[in-house]
Design a protein that fits this description.
alpha+beta, Glutaredoxin, Glutathione S-transferase Yfyf (Class Pi), Chain A, domain 2, about 10% strand, 4 strands, globular
Length: about 200
């Protein structure tokens, strides 16, 4: 397998963490997005959206990080990261959809006005940052209640935990404080204690 990725993409963090967690052989290919490599015809032939990550598994091209995460987990079912029963599948998919439609966009708004301002050489928009931060806090409140009395989002460790935690791995740079969300803070501590998650992050 080949994973086309960028080391500073939170969407790539989750996929790299799962590759590490599952011990799957995978060649990493950095897409130089600053140079427009993600819009080159040869890359668009694999991922018409021109985004990262993209997984190439012997000519099967998979894009959308949550879809890639599920695919990787399905390749190694004995790890138990992707439930096969209806209830477990629904719980995992619920969090994956929520991450894609709600928390992911909220966190991206904050990332765009903090971490990515430096990468793309532009000034921080304080109004956009404040609006994004309020959405992140709203979403953290949802997670705080969901994690009450549980170590992981679905009870046991699943792909949902890797996909959800990826948006908070750069929270210090983002200016996101978890002190008001003790359940989320404890959960992130458990995720960040995993070597697979630590290895997914670039040196900062």
């Amino acid at each position: 397998m080949k994973l086309y990725q960028h080391p500073f993409s939170s969407a790539c963090f989750k996929v790299l963490a799962l590759v590490n967690e599952l011990g799957l052989p995978c060649e990493l290919v950095t897409v130089e997005m600053q140079n427009g490599a993600h819009k080159a015809p040869e890359y668009l032939a694999m991922n018409p959206n021109g985004k990262v990550p993209t997984l190439d598994d012997d000519g099967l091209y998979i894009w959308e990080s949550n879809a890639i995460a599920c695919y990787l987990a399905a390749k190694k079912p004995e790890a138990g990261l992707l439930p096969t029963d209806a209830r477990g599948m629904a719980q995992v998919q619920q969090w994956l959809q929520w991450q894609a439609t709600t928390f992911g966009p909220s966190a991206t708004e904050v990332m765009m006005e903090t971490f990515y301002t430096k990468m793309f050489g532009r000034e921080k928009d304080e109004a956009k940052y404040a609006a994004g931060l309020e959405k992140v806090k709203r979403d953290l409140g949802v997670m705080e209640k969901a994690l009450a009395g549980k170590e992981y989002l679905c009870g046991a460790l699943t792909v949902a935990d890797f996909c959800r935690s990826s948006s908070l791995l750069l929270r210090t740079v983002m200016g996101v404080d978890l002190e008001a969300f003790p359940n989320v803070k404890a959960w992130m501590g458990r995720m960040e204690a995993r070597e697979s998650v630590r290895k997914s992050l670039p040196p900062l």
